[in-house]
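Continuing from the previous page...

OK, I double-checked the sequence for HC-toxin efflux carrier TOXA against my notes and this is the correct one:
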Amino acid sequence: MATTQPANASLIGTPHTTSHRTEENSAARAAVTPSTPSTLDNSGFPSPLCQRAVTLEDISFDEKLRPREQERLPLYKDSRRRLVFIGILIAWFFKGFDDSVITTIVPALSRRFDALGLIAWFSAAYFFPQACLAIGFGRLAAVANTRMLVVIDGMLLIVGSILCIVANSASLFILGRVITGLGIALGFPLCATVLICITSPNERPLYMAGCVGVDVMSLAFGSLLGGFFETNIDYRWVFALTIFGAVMSMVFIYPFQQPARPTDHLPVWQHLRRFDFMGFGLFLVCSICLLLALQMATQSGRWDSTPVIVLFALFTVTLPIFILQQRTHCHPDDRLLPRGIFSRDMSLLLGFGLSTMFAMYGVYYYLSTYFQSVHGLSSFDTGVCLLAFFITSGVASLATGASTEFVTYANTIILMGVTLALVGSALLTTLDQNTSRIKASLLTMISGFGFGTAQTLAVVFSQSWVAEHLQPLTVSIALMMQLLGGTLGLVLGGSLLNMRVRAGLEHLHGKLSEVQVAEIAQGSLPPEVMESLPTSVTVEVYSIMAQAVQNIFYTATGAVAVAEDEQQWLVLAANTSYKQ
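Thanks. Re-ran it with the corrected sequence; updated structure tokens here:
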């Protein structure tokens, strides 16, 4: 299998040019002859002194079964692959739609189900499965029957959405969101696998960036339609749209013809034997313990409670065990994180994606809290105010993808994106109860443009620095790291909001009931709640909420600063380029 990692890449530890897009050529083939020295240390991890090699067996098999790139029509000229790509776009559109669909309706859900104590789980139940299971599903997508996975993915989304529609309790609704999250966790590595199969290395960055751009822009429609249906009709209609999207994506992607793979001849039991169940189990326990500990601490406001301490202790124990298990695995190609995935540059890139999405999710989710709880807007009006951020992010993602056809070096684009995200996040810390809605929306556009650019580059670059057979899994890992960062941003943001608001309301306990304090601390402050507050404390409550949201934006700014530092190291390590 010919590698698509760049020639003279910075994996070798020297500041040579890192090519973002490469072509199959004789030089790549010569680099993986049987005489090539081992590039792995005793643990199976890439040596810092040389690039990872791919076996000659993989190359010969791949070249026999796959047409040469120069003999293959571009995607836009092939009707079958074009339809499959449309299905992928539909799937990514409704992924973003589902990501933000309850952003503006969480307060209404908590009142409908009388479940203020479970308000944080409405979002967490959806994002946790994605952050924990994406790697495992990415490994599965590389060997399992694609059409079977397409059907399973569609059914998970349909069942989860139906449960959300018929739910008459918070528990059933949360279960529906968990199942929907499972569908998304399976869907995006599956879409990444299919996209890599139907595109050539030269055209792949453009189409991948297009998918990311559609995903980001669909966040706007999710929040807007969620608010519209909750305000004017019934919020359950938004989940009917998710069912429609799941059916349409299945119809378009199902005709995809999976090319032959080296492992297709193996029986099922050998596939199971090669799957790293121990590594996956350790990673699952590790990630679940971390996220649950943060979520429980956020919900209760107590970081010193026994369950939280126990979960943090389990995370602290299982993380080094997982790392040790991966390093000592007897078959490095079969472990959960196979050899050839990680290098210095890839680790920096994954950290960059995690930090960027930590900030982005914290910004867009708590912008909704700002407009609802500080300006007293309805769900629909909040969705309208968020349009500026989401549309700008989506346009930036699409523009970044299009730039891959015209711009050789990516350093300028990376610097511009991260800088705008940093400046925009810093400006958002100035929002208070006296800031007009128009001004607030305009300020969000700066950070939106930066986040859209940075998110796209993190995904596009990830598949460029590894061998071709590892690209789908690498994209899945990059997306999972972004989802993990985003989930952490939501959870820690909720904790900051809760603690800051409760501290600010301490001297108002005589004027507010415990229920009102709990609603305000959770960010559940729609107009009808504010109308029930005494006039004398209304202005002070708005001020306290504004200061709490500002603290979250300060945290987001810090995360972007970390991302910029990681990006600087990437630039120093390699002069990143799109083309040879």
